[in-house]
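MOLECULE: protein
FOLLOWS: sequence and fold
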Amino acid sequence: MEERKGAKPSKVEDEEKWVYDSSLDHKGNVPLRAQTGVWKASLFIVAIEFSERLSYFGIATSLIIYLTKVMHDDLKVAAKSVNYWSGVTTLVPLFGGFIADAYLGRFNTVLASSIIYLLGLILLCMSWFVPSLRPCDTKSCHGPRKIHEVVFFLAIYLVSIGTGGHKPALESFGADQFDDDHPEERKQKMSYFNWWNFGLCCGLLLGVTVVVYVQDHVSWGVADIVLTAVMAVSLVIFIVGRTNYRYRKPTGSPLTPMLQVLVAAIAKRSLPHPSDPAQLYEIPKSEKVHGRLLCHTKNLKFLDKAAIISAQTLAEKPSPWRLATVTKVEEMKLVLNMIPIWLATLPFGMCVAQASTFFIKQGATMNRNIGNGFEIPPASIFSLAAIGMIISVTFYEKLLVPILRRTTGNERGINILQRIGIGMVFSIATMVAAALVEKKRLGAVESDPVKGSHSMSVLWLAPQFVIIGLGDGFTLVGLQEYFYDQVPDSMRSLGIAFYLSVIGAGNFLSSLLITVVDHITEKGGKSWFGKDLNSSRLDRFYWVLACIVAANLCVYVFLARRYSYKNVQKVAVVADCYEGELEKGGPMA
């Protein structure tokens, strides 16, 4: 760090010049505020997210079409394969986030996972262009070669593994560029998640229009080359920006301190609670600590026993397995408090799963001509969800937040859990709209079996895609903020992975629900899931989902109203604390 000459600067001037939030610059020194982080670094990261999402959605939204047209799978098998792949893709980040936080660091994790991602895309290209790996020798065949199936699934699961490190580490690395203890940067961080999703949606939009058009009208192989080139360029961009970034050192396994709290609490289970929480053990603020200190909260009191200073701990040097700090206890409470919220958001993840499976397949059966003989690919209808999310995020950031800040006095405008709950209402509306449109489509098939649903424009699907996009602008962005902000500071990559796991577990639950409904309805005479859409009853399945989400919303509101947010000690005043969510009347009031 360069030597500062002349008169000693005041503490305020010093904190304006340097960043004291445990981050480092690329040389391992305390970062200069003016030269590192904030938007100058985050824009690099948002640009990479744009490129990666273009590649991901170029594969994801067309996967069910590829499996039914090239692999010749029936609808039920194809939908399950897509759900399994999507589920793995959004659950692997739990492992990737753990590695990033504990051992590799976020920058190195993004770098390594991007290389794995790129290898998957290269293998995908080879599965189309290498003659011995192609689906078949002729233009049309009844089923692909076994070697093509093996190489194709290996390629897309390599993309899954790459995404598993890329997604949690990159998004949390971007948020790390803002200092939580600096008022201006803290406000910018709140906007970061909105603009992150704006970049994500722009990538998604190009992925489901340009890339999908190339898949449909040129070839799948050419589209794979485009995706590979985009990913290679994004990797170069990421490396070029390295001097602008703020870095965090990995802190070891975040699970060990939580286990220490549990062991210490059990060991001292017979000790009485102190009447004053100030008597619980905490590192003095005069000592240098890594990360922020948390204030004591009243819930889950049993864990407080881990921080009780007993005669035995006074007599000897305290072991972390015998005596935990209040901050470590509160971090354990944060993780436990998240479990009910995570479970209550899973039905939302089930709704999201329908957009990349049955919604896309519905579009494939309808009239996709939109004028002058131009036929849009089935997966391109997904672009309406991206447009809906872009509108939602922009409206929220530019219009709603300034008004709500003045009205509620909350820095965010509304609490994070309120934002998530609003999006859940949109997901119910999505399923209702989807059920009504599918009922009309089946009516068209019944009235004219020859022409079928081709008499209906694909734009009939617009309401369900736009509504789910509008809802994603609330729920998905809210989930990202919630899991990043409310986890312990040492677990922020894992926090983003928890958000992604909502979507992943939702995909697996969707597959399970399909299996259960298929089994029950088949016993009743005719399954709701036939060989194709026209012999299925997806409208009834959508009504079931709408009812599940509506019932779950009641549970979610109950949990949200009782939720206790992270309580962080202020830097300037030793005895003062503030809650991460300054609220009026409770989270869902």
